[in-house]
């Protein structure tokens, strides 16, 4: 199954606003989505990033369903 | 506690702080973050800020609730620029209103620390040697 992931910062600059990754059947965990992303985009494997689900920060074990909005967040640098 | 969080897309877009003052607030602590040059020996031409707006508001709400549990706060304000910001221009304004100065000072510092740690804003520095994404956390 295909899941779209929104990107920001340096990830957006490198890959565009959004990418699609192949994921197993839903529900899956945040950790599995990140794993799928890193498999396809190994150039950024050394960058730590967080993930947001439906516009809230998520943790590795949080569940992701088909219609959830996902975003990958590279290191923040506000201020 | 009153809150006001806003992303600002031009240099003159910062709201007037007078609207957040009240008779019950004896202290108003303001932190103005300004784009600085030089940085690490290089002339900064400008910074480019990008934000994830929906998450920005949700994270700011979470931070405000956390700070309210630690400090006496009457109002909390955070305004942050997005887009291109030139040296000498404001990038961020953080303001805390409290009955007394001690809580206002500490809460304002904590607010800035939280902003830099978790709020989804990214900046790219353009300087005399090229450009790079500034990386703070995680």
Summarize the structure in words.
Chain A is of the alpha+beta class and 79 residues long. Chain A is 23% helix and 33% strand. Chain A has a single domain (2-68), classed as Beta-grasp domain (Ubiquitin-like (UB roll)). In chain A, strand 4 (50-53) and strand 5 (56-58) form a beta hairpin. The longest helix of chain A has 11 residues, at 30-40. The radius of gyration of chain A is 12 Å and the shape is globular. The N and C termini of chain A lie far apart (38 Å). With 138 residues, chain B is α+β, with helices and mostly antiparallel strands. Chain B has one domain (2-128): Aldehyde Oxidoreductase, domain 3 (Alpha-Beta Complex), CATH 3.90.1170.40. Chain B is 26% helix and 38% strand. Chain B is built from two helices and eight strands. The longest helix of chain B is centred in the middle third of the chain and has 18 residues, at 53-70. The two termini of chain B are 29 Å apart. At the A-B interface, helix 1 of A face strand 3, helix 1, helix 2 and strand 7 of B.
């Amino acid at each position: 199954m295909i899941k779209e992931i929104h990107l920001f910062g340096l990830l957006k600059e490198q890959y565009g606003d959004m990418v699609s990754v192949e994921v197993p059947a839903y529900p899956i965990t945040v950790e599995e989505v990140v794993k799928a992303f890193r498999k396809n985009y190994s150039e950024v494997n050394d960058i730590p990033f967080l993930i947001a689900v439906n516009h809230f920060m998520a943790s590795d074990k949080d569940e992701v369903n088909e219609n959830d909005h996902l975003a990958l967040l590279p290191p923040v640098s506000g201020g | 506690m009153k809150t006001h969080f806003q992303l600002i897309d031009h240099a003159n877009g910062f709201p007037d702080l007078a609207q957040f003052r009240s008779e019950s607030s004896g202290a108003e602590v303001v932190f103005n973050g300004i784009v600085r040059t030089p940085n690490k020996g290089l002339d900064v031409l400008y910074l480019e800020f990008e934000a994830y707006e929906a998450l920005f508001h949700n994270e700011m709400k979470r931070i405000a609730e956390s700070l309210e549990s630690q400090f006496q706060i009457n109002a909390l304000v955070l305004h942050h620029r997005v887009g291109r910001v030139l040296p000498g221009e404001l990038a961020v304004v953080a303001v805390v209103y409290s009955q007394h100065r001690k809580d206002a000072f500490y809460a304002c510092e904590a607010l800035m620390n939280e902003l830099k740690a978790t709020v989804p804003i990214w900046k790219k520095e353009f300087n005399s040697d090229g450009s790079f994404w500034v990386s703070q956390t995680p």
